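Practice record 12: protein with FE2/S2 (inorganic) cluster.
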Amino acid sequence: MLTKEQNDELTQVGPGKPMGELLRHYWYPVAFSADLPLGHTKGVRLLGENFTIYRDGEGTLGMIDELCPHRMASMTYGIVEKCGLRCAYHGWLFDETGACIDQPAEPDSSQFKDRVTVGAYPVEEMGGLLWTYIGREPVPYLPRFDVYVMDGVRDCGWAEIPCNWLQVMENSVDPHHVEWLHGYYFEYLGNKEGFEAPKAFQKKHEKVAFDEFEYGIIKRRLLEGQSEEDDDWKVGHPLMFPYGMRVGGAGNDQMQIRVPIDDTHTWIAFYSCHHPGEDHPVDDPNEVTAYELPWKRDDGTIVTDYIEGQDIMAWVTQGPVTDRTREHIGKSDLGVVKLRRMFKEQLARVAAGEDPIGVEREPHEIIELPCEKNKFGAGGGFATAWLEMGSSRYSPQLDRLRSIYQNAFQAAS
Ligand code: FES
Ligand SMILES: [Fe+2]
């Protein structure tokens, strides 16, 4: 249980708030590359602030504050020029550095534009996503985590959900929920609705452990019938501080992304790179097949007959910002306690003027992350069960993914 003040400190992500300052030390994905062709703009909301991202006629990417510094019209409706973005209202033109380079209605002799700037932020492309950084300088390097740059077939289901990002992160250090939410609840639904739920999730957790590492917390589980030599314990998988979780198994390496839009909204994405066997296809590393996940029916109920839908049900029903003054934390919530402590420690580092963990100050090609391969001891069958019972079932390339796994299994047998 937390006090209201502790809960507020952990969950308020806007500018000037302690957590807002901590979260502004990291790069975030804010759009898919394919959503922003040459000459297009897109509105972005990140950490409680609004921006306009654009790709100008020369292909330069820029992200600036949404409101024009003249008289505050939205730049998302702007005119994309060969170089820069022009406000639709009176034509002020800005480049990707935030400099104002034209004010057509001002007198020719005016120097006024030299005194006007708009907030501007770096944008980089990686893995078919557009990434930005809105914190203070010096700008850290964009971390090139393995899933975004490895060879394979990229696939990403996403949704915007009406709850605080921390609820989603706490789920990443909560191994016991798997037995119930994805195990027994899934089976209960299957019996009621006439489908067969996967059994791999029901295995009892004999023990769990949470070890800090340089990017967050490695989560380990020992399921009944397993030994400490099994991947789930020996390797485990990491919570990626402060907004991700890396998971994997049998040819599907995945990053689960939870971008805080504001205090009560989160952009969640399940970004997979599929590469089973030796002979899998390799797609353009800058392209990803993206699709929105259906999570809510027209009658307002939540779709819970797939794995990620079950998690979304838990996160959303905990409330826009879960009231942690009313919770009852038990021994099995050890990981949640550890994560809250890590946030507290990192808030203190930021208050002392230091970088929090995981801020990249060195150039690099790839950051390989520890992640189990044989998840739940379920072997290759896990990857195909995950395709059918997880969010990939909504992928427009589901048939292609099925055949990629079938070919890999045939080649192996
Ligand atoms: S409000 Fe943008 S140019 Fe006037
Ligand atoms: Fe889950």
